[in-house]
Amino acid sequence: MRALYTASTGMAAQEANVELISNNIANLRTAGFKRQRAEFQDLLYQSMRRVGSTSSDAGTIVPTGVDIGSGVKLVATPRVMSQGTIAATEKTYDVAIRGEGFFQVDLPDGRTAYTRDGSFELDPTGQIVTADGYVVSPGITVPENALSVTINATGQVEATIQGQTAPQQLGQLQLARFINKSGLEAIGDNLFLETPASGTPLEDNPGAEGFGSVMQAYLEQSNVNAVTEISDLIAAQRAYEMNSKVISSADQMLQSTASMLR
């Protein structure tokens, strides 16, 4: 019976939906995390009576047809790249992006990754790095005798050096943005990679036209809304239950048919 297969595709689709929602909720407190949503499409149809065909020799047109669908499929899990809440951390090397852009990170294999997670640290050489020790491009080093470090809204990094009155400029943070942010490939560790779908990165200083500014001692929180996710979870559960009910009903119909043949 076709209904068994059709309902099974619905159950599989909602199972994937619940998995996405669970990942969103799990990353509720992950800095810079961008939630995902599931997008579905209907599967192929079998036309029992094609719309627009003729129903008589006189050329009478059938106004509606008879099409039987075969279920649903998961086609995309795009990330919602909306701005997350910016929270104060009182930590010198925490940097939040307010607006468009990604920090650029140099991976050990030579590739460049992109992130919205600005929870940076210093490595043993004084370079600004991510929590995993990856260098934040363009590789800014803080001197050992620096008394304080400031990062202004345009990404200029300056340090007050012991024995000097004027602050010393250490470097310039740059941001990258993409024409299709949802086309970036997530590789874990709050990092994304460029893909043909995302387009090539456009680089410039924070505050430039089309780019956001940065805020020192702040972090961008996850853009996951707990209430929305719970509501979506309940809807997905109910859809799963309804599809399982269809399978149970189809099974009962087959059982009735089989009992008639005895």
UniProtKB/TrEMBL annotation:
Domain Flagellar hook protein FlgE/F/G-like D1: 96-159
One GO process term, biological-process aspect: bacterial-type flagellum-dependent swarming motility
Keywords: Bacterial flagellum, Cell projection, Cilium, Flagellum
Pfam families found in the cross-reference section: Flg_bb_rod (PF00460), Flg_bbr_C (PF06429), LlgE_F_G_D1 (PF22692)
InterPro entries: Flag_bb_rod_N (IPR001444), Flagellar_basal_body_rod_CS (IPR019776), Flagellar_FlgE/F/G (IPR020013), Flg_bb/hook_C_dom (IPR010930), FlgE/F/G-like (IPR037925), FlgG_G_neg (IPR012834), LlgE_F_G-like_D1 (IPR053967)
Transmembrane feature ranges: none
Domain Flagellar basal body rod protein N-terminal, first and last residues per copy: 4-34
Location in the cell: Bacterial flagellum basal body
Residues in Flagellar basal-body/hook protein C-terminal domain copies: 215-260
The UniProt record lists the keyword Hydrolase: no
Gene Ontology cellular component terms for the protein in this record: bacterial-type flagellum basal body, distal rod
Major subcellular location class: other
Family in the record: Belongs to the flagella basal body rod proteins family.
Subunit structure: The basal body constitutes a major portion of the flagellar organelle and consists of four rings (L,P,S, and M) mounted on a central rod. The rod consists of about 26 subunits of FlgG in the distal portion, and FlgB, FlgC and FlgF are thought to build up the proximal portion of the rod with about 6 subunits each.
Protein name: Flagellar basal-body rod protein FlgG
Species the sequence originates in: Methylopila turkensis
Gene that this sequence comes from: flgG
